[in-house]
Amino acid sequence: MSARLTDEKRSEEERVADEAADGTASTRANGTAADAEGSAHAADGSGDEPMQFDVQAGLTDGLNEAQTLLADLVATPAVSGNESEAAERLKAFFEAHDREVWIDEVGNVRAPADDSVLLTSHIDTVPGNVPVKIEDDVLWGRGSVDATGPLASMAVAAVETGVSFVGVVEEETTSKGAWHLVENRDAPDAVINGEPSGWDGITLGYRGILSGTYVGTSELGHSSRPENNAIQSAVDWWSRTADFFEADEEEGVFDTVTTKPVSFHGGPTDDGLAVEAEVDVQFRVPPRFGIEDVREVAEGELTEGSVHWNRPIPPVMTNPRTEVARAFRVAIREADGDPRLLRKTGTSDMNIYAGEWDCPMATYGPGNSDLDHAPNEHLDLAEYDAAVEVLTGVCETLTE
Q: How far apart are CA 15 and CA 121, in angstroms?
């Protein structure tokens, strides 16, 4: 039976939260774990009183070790930039199994071992007050799907099989952990990145992201004057650029450039002498285009103002015939699943790894990505267990 290649569209919650993916949007951060009273607190980084959310009393009663790790991590707030307590819990798990482990200078949890495979997922989550509970063997809570479920399943599989593991920080904002990793570590023989694909899904492709800020200034004049002011010039530039990339109806989302203005600020300067306009923009770039192609078009449409670009993340599309993809297909079938090969319209840390490391890779993890960042985020514990089984089988195959 052949695996099926499908495109997975991002939900509205994913698209909204992705506006922070390049670090230009601010993210309120949570910071501490569940306390003895059955509640967790999270500092928001602003100096205000900590946010509080409920954790079900006796949350981990009756769970096995792998499930307990997952529940503990979901009950530990880990918004981007405030992952330290979750990182300590992850580190303690590896220490309990006599594995070498440390937290590096940016906050990544590093547990090197057999580099035939590197399992890596992100520790951080987006903000969100989702009460942490288990009902009918389903775990509810922020990060249960994106991506604490994949993270915990990889930690368990790494301990079971003796392969390398890294939990990275700030994937939801700047990808600080992944960039640090590729700049300070040699490439492994293979990479499995952790994001929700469903226990029977294997993600092979992601679009890249190019983001930046348009800045324009014009002389302040009476509104009856016919000349464009800076705000009009900014709107006109963005309209021309978006029109250029308008997709044909026959093209799927994955194969098109998606243009998105993230924020817009404009008006007179404080001294009353000029008009300023500032627009934060994002382009999702498919593998059939290069980042430079999109940047060239955007700059070519400028008549006024300029664009200050952020560090881009390139698109990625891996081969479904690599040893990593083959190992996943075999392991999923052995668990009575029908493998699905996915292409996602968002961006992940796998884009960074693929751009810097020349080795086979794929992205995998339990959970329905439609629930990423959603107020009803939850993960079936049976799916989590199945993902651990699949990951263990894949790692055993790749380390033979």
A: 20
Q: Which of 13, 72, 171, 389 is catalytic?
A: 171
Q: What is the location of CATH 3.40.630.10 in the chain?
A: 4-206+315-398
In degrees, rounded to 5, the angle at the alpha carbon of residue 128 between the alpha carbons of residues 122 and 133 is: 90
Biggest CA-to-CA distance, the chain: 75
From the number of C-beta atoms within 10 Å of its C-beta (0-12, 13-18, 19+), residue 2 rates as: exposed
Is residue 44 annotated as part of the catalytic site, yes or no? no
| Strand arrangement of the beta sheet that strand 274-285 belongs to | 258-268, 274-285, 208-219, 306-309
pLDDT surpasses 70 at 202: yes
Specify the amino acid at residue 171: E
- Pinpoint the residues of the chain covered by CATH 3.30.70.360: 208-309
Has 195 been labeled as part of a binding site? yes
124 a catalytic residue: yes
Mean pLDDT score of the chain, rounded to an integer? 88
Q: What's the confidence (pLDDT) of residue 54?
A: 87
β-pairing, 109-111 with 163-168? antiparallel
The span from the CA of 129 to the CA of 132, in Å, is 9
DSSP reduced 3-state for 121: strand
Fold of the 208-309 domain: Alpha-Beta Plaits (3.30.70)
Pairing, β 201-206 against β 138-140 = unpaired
- Assign 85 a pLDDT band (cuts: 50, 70, 90): very high
User: Do 157 and 78 meet the contact criterion of CB atoms below 8 Å apart?
Assistant: no
4-206+315-398 belongs to which homologous superfamily?
Zn peptidases (3.40.630.10)
Of 124, 170, 372, 385, the active-site residue reads: 124
